[in-house]
Amino acid sequence: MNHASFTNLPASTTLPAHSVDGCTAVPAGVGRNRSAALFVLAAATEFLLVAIAAFFAAILYHWLIFQDLPDLAKYVAESLLIATLELIVSVGLGQYSRIQTQLRHVYLWGGVTAVLLAFSLFLSATFLLEISEDYSRAIVMVQVASAVLAVICARTLWLSFLLPALSSGQIDTRRVILVGEPDHCLHFSARTMASGIRTIRSFDFPTVRARSSAQMRPGAVQMLPDARRLVADCRPLRADDIVILTSQQDVSSALTLASALSDLPVDVHVVPVGLIDLMSKSRIAQFGNMVTMRIFQSALTPFQRAIKRAFDIAAAVAGLIVVSPLFVIVPIAIKLDSSGPVLFRQKRHGYNNEPIRVLKFRTMTVMEDGDNFSPVTRHDPRVTRLGHFLRHTNIDELPQLFNVLIGDMSIVGPRPHATAQNEVFAELISSFSRRHNVKPGITGWAQVNGYRGDTDTLEKMQRRVEHDLYYIDNWSLLLDLKIMIMTLFSRKVYWNAY
Fold it and tell me: How many whole angstroms separate alpha carbon 177 and alpha carbon 32?
């Protein structure tokens, strides 16, 4: 294929000629410098907020408890040291440099981790220097809480500004040159725009060949005039990256072209155009003595499962203590309202699609299970008078705290469906069974977003599955806490509750 630099991409996908919204041209390097300056500003803002929060938390605590002011100079120095340690940890973990590619909850949780590590380093230093007795443990705990709150607020505000600026083209994080077919370049450029990666020029795939002469050193590359011209044309553009979009016929020469482009001070990437969607879901992983492209991974690592399990046990025990009066009142009310057992045990699918028995307070006049199960509908005559109240308030789910304690369920996770429903929808929705890659939960991301109740259409179940898979793919302890809080206070939880 002859080398030819075709015209710049359309205004909707091009920088620096025009940004997305049609603003004026941006000289090479301006967008990149602006993004670097903004990331420095984000780090500096977070540094100041952590220092201020730690300082005033200590002063306020000392004033409230001891009714006087402490040595201000001491706490100024301490707060600046804590903020410096938090900044060093955040920079060392690359949190600021990956803002545009990190999920929101990952970035926020990273800030919490940075604060905890910073205080760990601070306490270790005071212990080694034998000055730990000069610092109150209570004040340190208050400072930890205030610093965590400051980091979460700072990063939330920063993301609310940064993400729209990236997607609108106001900030460039990387400037890229694409090499490949025009249609492939347009598609790739459109996909990377939302993360602030701007295509500044694109070229056809040039002709290159590897030297085969015995006199040449192994691996040496002989560039034909069009390949040499490509290198020359790319040099003054001062890009950050060059991406080679290889079609099937170009795969064999992609490595040779990449070697030729290594003469430029840029990162060189090779992307098979037919696998862009596949690669967007994959990660390069070390597998023994080989490197593989991992498409999916286990929902939770063993460490994450242990953390989630410990949290489940603590939350279930606390929950049972808090609602223990209901375990006396509700059974009596059920017996007075209708005849039958207090608890209803229904077979459902749990982790790894294994059958479990889910406990609920009985809310219906029937005990349907297995293939005989029929979903509850609005104004269902099978639901008792008390059952309407129990179902609408989610009190009927409280016995599932015992399922959590024995390990069949989690506090938060995809809600388990009756086995008859599982079998039907597993045939209709290809990713349905992925819901069982984690333990089912008493509450879940789908429920707090209003997707509960009757699933009389395929679309309703698809929306529920989409939310469940989002939870699985983005799990964090903070997300679990958010869902628990939303379960208690969000009105959406009670939509379609009947």
Answer: 14
Q: What is the pTM (predicted TM-score) of this model? A: 0.59
CA dist 480 and 439 (Å) reads: 13
pLDDT, tens digit (0-9, with 9 covering 90-100), for 295-331: 777 788 888 899 999 999 999 999 999 999 999 999 9
Supply the mean pLDDT for the chain: 79
**Beta strands at 410-412 and 441-443: parallel, antiparallel or unpaired:** parallel
Tokens describing residue 456 = 């009389």
Domains of the chain: 11-25+172-294 (3.40.50), 30-168 (no CATH), 302-494 (no CATH)
First-to-final CA distance of the chain: 65
pLDDT digits 0-9 by tens, 240-268: 889 998 877 777 778 888 888 888 888 89
DSSP 13: G
| Exposed e or buried b per residue across 479-493, where buried means at least 16 C-beta atoms within 10 angstroms of its C-beta | bbeebbebbeeeeeb
- For residues 436 and 472, the answer to whether their CB atoms sit within 8 Å is no
d(CA 154, CA 50): 9
pLDDT band at 359 (very low <50, low <70, confident <90, very high): very high
| CB-based contacts of 435, cutoff 8 Å, min separation 6 | 414, 465, 468, 469, 472
Residues 242/234, Cβ–Cβ less than 8 Å: yes
In 3D space, the residue among 201, 171, 179, 189 whose CA is nearest the CA of residue 268 turns out to be 179
